[in-house]
Design brief:
The chain is α/β, with parallel strands linked by helices and 584 residues long. It is built from 21 helices and 15 strands.
């Protein structure tokens, strides 16, 4: 049993963690902002800028959309164009009047971001499973690092009567985190819609409902939102600088083993650099990346130190990419499934490597099982070839692990890799079902109905099916349809979970349909024995059975002898293999 202790877990929340609360993601923010602009002059200016940025984005990344950070960064550069040295090297060819007052447009955009970041309580049900993490270790707050301006976590804590600290009482108080009591420590590295800096230099928290990013205090001071926008990310802002240092220190500590990152693309270079530095120092740290594009984020921004992909980063091989929606995976046992099996997998791999270094014969089966359950693809692909497959004993492990990898990779849009594991699954299935199928026909030949009338051959003979028939000494090991039904019902449940939590359920639908077919197939045979008549009825529901029906009718008219029974057995087996082969 693996001990679960949430003191080794830290959450890192990006924009994707708030999407289910209807806070726009970085791309939909742009379209929603444009729709909110009513002034014709502003509308024309912002539309021209967005059109030009989309052209630039298509040329550079092939993407036909831009995010809010690029738009805001561009507006700030246009406002500060006289101080942009690089513009002096280009001939002016303005798309619009450069005397346009971009400051008003920037203020509108900041106000819009603030307005959309104020989240009502009823939108936060999806966060409820976080309570399990908070309650796991009493008097030890759950650490949450957030790169969002919104108040999702604060509202969540208010709803559930949880105490939380973010570094403020009313004013910024750097000592507040020294109190180890409470439920949540919240480190907002990009600021908050509730944080303001007054024109006297004080940092205060003002939990008022306002869509404006600038307010006036009752003391007469004016205050502006403390939110770290693009182009300002290295400005010295005391709360953010202090929080950044504290977050880095937490991640470097030996207690931190799992950083669960949700919906963050790692565009910020300073965050990437900090995480790489942390991973160099904290060798036990693993990153669990939850995002529909998790694999591409890891490949493009975390796996290597540079775009040439020649120098492996300190996070290489230490990232678990889960391509799912946060609310869905949180609901479906992030804590008791994925993290549980990840802990078990890491412990199993440590034992495996120790034995390998000592020259002992290794048994990778436990590690393979746990890696598949945790969907730790990179390490699974490293360990799986070490399995010297003895399919008599390992066929169920191969089926289970290869199916999970195929589904995971399909959800991650890695079609070719998914097909490779699906082939493992199909080949193993073909062996245990088709190559090792057994069919037995029983009957005394004297059965009669309740009125004493003699029964027909198809009524008095029964057919039994066995799978993965393996001879052992004088006996044999045979798995029944019921054994396989239990296995495929588990597979079917897993497929349904993946379809619910991934953003591309159509990618896994073909695999799911295959699993449902086999579950229904074994359910149709889930009896101790079937009369030949009942067996024929079950098959009529699945596909054309004329040849099989003719064979049973011929058997019914004949005398049941060893030869006729063996002949029918061969025809039934041939039919069943054809039926299975169509799906495998």
């Amino acid at each position: 049993m693996v001990e679960i202790d949430n003191r080794d877990i830290i959450f890192l929340l990006g924009a994707g963690a708030s999407v289910e609360a209807e806070v726009p993601n970085t791309y939909s923010f742009v379209s929603q902002f444009v729709n909110s602009v009513t002034d014709n002059g502003k509308k024309k200016a912002i539309t021209s800028i967005i059109d030009e940025l989309k052209k630039w984005e298509r040329n550079h990344s092939g993407r036909d959309e831009i995010d809010i950070e690029l738009l805001l960064e561009t507006l700030m550069k246009l406002e500060d164009k006289d101080n942009e040295t690089i513009l002096q090297f280009y001939s002016p060819n303005p798309l619009f009047d450069l005397n346009f007052d971009f400051s008003k447009l920037i203020l509108d955009l900041k106000d819009f971001i603030k307005y959309k970041s104020i989240v009502p309580e009823e939108k936060l049900d999806y966060l409820q499973p976080l309570i399990e993490f908070i309650e796991e270790v009493p008097n030890s707050p759950l650490d949450i690092i957030s790169l969002n301006y919104d108040i999702c976590i604060e509202q969540f804590c208010n709803i559930h009567k949880l105490t939380w600290k973010d570094g403020f009482d009313v004013r910024w108080n750097t000592n507040i985190f020294q109190d180890s009591s409470g439920d949540v420590n919240l480190y907002k590295l990009h600021g908050s819609v509730m944080w303001y800096k007054s024109d006297r230099g004080d940092y205060i928290k003002v939990p008022i409902m306002t869509g404006s990013s600038e307010i006036q205090l009752i003391t007469g001071e004016k205050a502006k939102n403390v939110m770290l926008y693009p182009m300002r990310k290295w400005d010295y802002i005391e709360p953010i600088f202090e929080l950044l240092l504290r977050a880095k220190s937490l991640l470097e500590s030996k207690e931190c083993k799992y950083l669960i990152c949700i919906g963050y693309s790692f565009r910020d270079e300073h965050i990437r650099d900090i995480l790489w530095d942390v991973a160099r120092k904290n060798k036990e740290l693993h990153l669990v990346l939850i995002d529909p594009k998790a694999q591409s984020i890891y490949n493009d921004r975390l796996k290597y130190y540079n775009d040439e992909m020649k120098s492996r980063s300190s996070l290489f091989g230490r990232v678990i990419c889960l391509p799912y929606m946060f609310g869905g995976i949180l609901k479906h046992h992030l804590k008791n499934h994925y993290l549980y099996h990840l802990r078990s997998a890491l412990r199993s791999m440590n034992d495996l490597y120790k034995n390998e270094r000592s020259g002992y014969e290794i048994d990778p089966r436990v590690a393979i099982r746990e890696l598949a359950l945790a969907e730790y693809t990179e390490k699974f692909e490293e360990i799986f070839p070490k399995l010297k497959t003895n399919l008599d004993g390992d066929w169920e492990l191969v089926l289970n692990s290869s199916l999970r990898m195929a589904l995971h990779l399909s959800a991650n849009n890695e079609t070719d890799e998914s097909s490779r594991y699906l082939k493992y699954f199909n080949d193993t299935l073909r062996m245990v079902l088709m190559d090792r199928m057994s069919v037995e026909i029983y009957g005394s030949g004297h059965e009669r109905d309740v009125d004493g009338r003699a029964l027909s051959n198809t009524q008095k003979h029964t057919v039994n099916f066995g799978f993965n028939y393996v001879k052992k000494g004088n006996g044999a090991q045979v798995n029944s349809a019921h054994d396989f039904l239990k296995l495929f019902d588990e597979f079917d449940h897993f497929c349904e979970v993946i379809k619910e939590i991934c953003t591309v359920p159509e990618n896994v639908e073909a695999i799911s349909s295959k699993i449902k077919f086999f579950a229904d197939y074994f359910r149709s045979l889930d009896h101790q024995s079937l009369t030949l008549e009942t067996y024929l009825e079950t098959r009529r529901k699945q596909r054309e059975v004329k040849e099989l029906g003719d064979s049973l009718e011929e058997f019914n008219k004949s005398t049941a002898t060893g030869n006729t029974i063996n002949g029918l057995r061969s025809k039934i087996m041939s039919y069943e293999k054809g039926l299975l082969n169509d799906m495998i």
